[in-house]
Amino acid sequence: MAQQVPGKETLTVRINTQVAEFYAENFDTPTGGCQMALEAFYSLYREGLTRLKLSSNFTSNELKFLLDATNGMSLSPALIGQQIVSQARKAILIDGIGKKWSIQTDRFMNKIESLEMVCQAALEIWGYSFWKNKGENPEKYLDMLL
Length: 146
Known about the structure:
Layout: H1 17-26, H2 30-55, H3 60-69, H4 84-93, H5 97-100, H6 105-113, H7 117-132, H8 138-145
Helix pairs in contact: 1-2, 2-7, 3-4, 3-7, 4-6
């Protein structure tokens, strides 16, 4: 049985062989590489949210649009940070959600397309997390970025 370490949780993860080989080659152990990646990912997510809050100037309605647009979106490790633009474009062109939230769609798309990948990834996780939590308490999610 693994020894408990205060302040740490034990997780069991399954990763594809190519990723495991990467960690074995680049870290002391594959487990150490996975631990670094999991903890670094959290830091990158927080950094992405911070950059968005400080510099993106999204309006409340634009953020509500993004929450609406991410309803039903799934996350893919291979595509993280690359889905939010197409998700927003689909919501505007196919679903008509831009009109619902009265956003200037061209201006909004320019904003979202110009974001760094870490910020786009943070928005994907932000929206996914909102719906994972049953779409409750949107004010909490808006406050993260306003």
